[in-house]
Description:
This protein is mainly alpha-helical. The chain has helices at 3-8, 11-21, 26-43, 52-64, 69-89, 115-123, 130-145, 149-153, 183-200, 219-232, 242-255, 260-267, 272-293; strands at 160-161, 166-170, 176-180. It folds into 2 domains: 3-89, DNA polymerase, domain 1 (Orthogonal Bundle), CATH 1.10.150; 115-292, hpI Integrase, Chain A, CATH 1.10.443.
Amino acid sequence: MTHSDQMNSDPEVERYLLLLAAQRSPRTVDAYSRDLAAAAVFLRAPIGAATTDDLDRWVAEMRANGLAASTIGRRVAAVRSYYRHQLLLGQRRDNPAAEVATPRRTRKLPRTLSPSESERLIEAANGTTPRSLRDRALVELMYGAGLRVSETVGLARTSVDIDARIVRVLGKGDKERIVPLGRPAAEAVRRYLALGRPHLDRRYRPDLFLNARGGALTRAGAFMILRKLAEKAGLEPERVHPHLLRHSFATHLLEGGADLRSVQEMLGHADLSTTERYTHVSDRRRRETYFSAHPHARAPEPVRGDPA
Length: 308
C-alpha cells in the first residue's frame, strides 16, 4: 500500500489536512501529509488508534534506518499536532505523542564568509552584460538583505524601492517584511533594471530576476550563478551557496554591533533562538581574533634554560 493509498483510507486525517490547508502554506500541508502517511504505513492502521508504545517503536525504527534527527523530530511534531487536533474536537482524551522522546539535534554553527570573501564574491560579478548586471544585483541582494533563495527568486520587479533603499520580502507563511538596503545593493539593482533586465525580458514577466530565456530565475539557477562567481573569485565553489550569504549577512551585522532583535526582524525569524545561533559565530570569531592578536593571550615562549 502506498502512502497516498494509506492517507485516502483515513478520512479523519483527510479532514485534519483540509482544516490545516486553511491556516498553513501548501508546502507545510504537503509535509504534514507525508509525515502522517509515514506513521500510518509503519502502524499498518489509522494513526488515531496509536499508543505511546507504538510511536516509541516508530521512532526507534526511524533511528535504526538512519533518518536524520531533524526528520524524526519533524515527523513526530506532525503526529503530535494531529493528536492535539483530535483532543480539541473531543475525539480522544490524551495525546500519545506528547511524551515520545526524539533524538537531540546537533546544532551546527552556520558557516560564513568573511567580509573580504563576501566582497570578492560580489566583485566577481563586475561585467556589463545583461547577465553580469543581473548576477551582481542577485548577490548584492542576497548578501545585502539576507534573503533566502526562495525569497530572492520570488521578488517582483516592484519589490525593490531604489529611492527609499528598501526591499519588500514575502517570507515563510506569506509574511511580508521590509529590509533596508545599502547603497551598493540599491545601485546594483538600479543598473540591472535600467541596463540589464530589458534585454532579458522577452515575455513581459513581473519577476525581478530573469534567466537567459526570459523566464523567471529558479532556485537552481541562483545556485549555479553563485557557484560560477565563487570559482571566479577564487573561493571554494562547493562551499558557496545562497544560504551562506544569509548566514554571512547576519553574522557581519552582529559583529558590527547590530542588536539581536533588529537582525531577527531583518531575517524574518519567528523565533529569536534561531537568530541567536549567529551570536555564537560572532563570539567564536572574536575569541579567535583575540587569541591570535593580543600579546598576553598568546602562550609565552619558554625562556632558554628555564625548566619546561
